[in-house]
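Let's practice the habit of predicting before peeking. Look at the sequence and jot down your guess about where helices and strands might fall. Then scroll down.
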Amino acid sequence: MTLIAVLAVIVLEFQWAENIRQRNDAHSISNGWILPSLIALVMLTVAVGIVLMASLYYRWKLRKPLDLLMKASEKISANDLGFRISYDSKDEMGELCRVFEIMRGQLEKNYHSLWRSVEERKQLNAIFAHDLRTPLSVLKGNSEFLSAYLPQRKISEEKLLDVIQTMGVHIERLEKYTEAMGSIQKLEDMPVSSHPIETDQLIALLHESGRQIIGNSGKSFNTSVAADANSIAVDVHLVLQVFENIAANAARFAFGHVSIHYCVNKGKLSITVSEDGTGFTEAGLRKAMLPFYRGEVSDADEHHGMGLYICKILCEKHEGSLQIDNGPDGGGQVTASFLNGVDK
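Done guessing? Here is the structure:
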């Protein structure tokens, strides 16, 4: 529209110059100023048109997306990622805004992941420090006891052996805690390598592991499958590690039966393991995925209360999740999910 208007003005200027020339045709000398004036006027009109078109283009096409990007940059600089960039246009600025929104979303995801990791690390350190207090207190008390009475030979050999044995138990506890903390760090640094695998083949691997774990515990089990795809890309070793943990937990707490449901739906693998035991207590539902939590069970397992916490870390590394609940008929129910992916 602006270009048409500029061309129309230039045409009028030519007509104006031609009219003047015709009126003064008899005075050829006086007509010498008409051509330079026309050229200057046309150039001025073109310049004004260019400035006007640039101004209108900026107002209509550039100002809104540039304002959006400027405000978004200021918010990102202030560590505020809780916003969205929306600019519905199919031109280059619209594409730029869409790319910027993708970058913002990835930054937000990374920020939340980092924040969650830091918070979990703080929580883990707090729990670790809390659980260290008891063995350290026992060791300190026994050390003071031996320092006070052993030089005076006021401790019988039987009592001395008893104190040494007690100290050995708590030293072993400290070693297990330290080993658990080291294994957690290794899990967090472990890469996830997803490869395509046939759904039937993956379920067969899981079924065989479940048969070994649950069958050896003397419990019965049944499986069911719901799949909308013939293959899925997952880290098989990671999935097996999570499944074996939750299957072992289910076999441990089940009265006599464990149910396993495999589901492949919309690019996500979910494994739900249910048992017919007493289920999770209210405290268990809140704390079962915390490190070193063993509920009311007195005997320590090989992970020292780390099983579900490890499963949670591995599921989240695979962009999935771990959920715990009680089934509709009682008994605990744990669902591990893994997002379909490619090599990470």
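How did you do? DSSP finds eight helices and seven strands in the chain.
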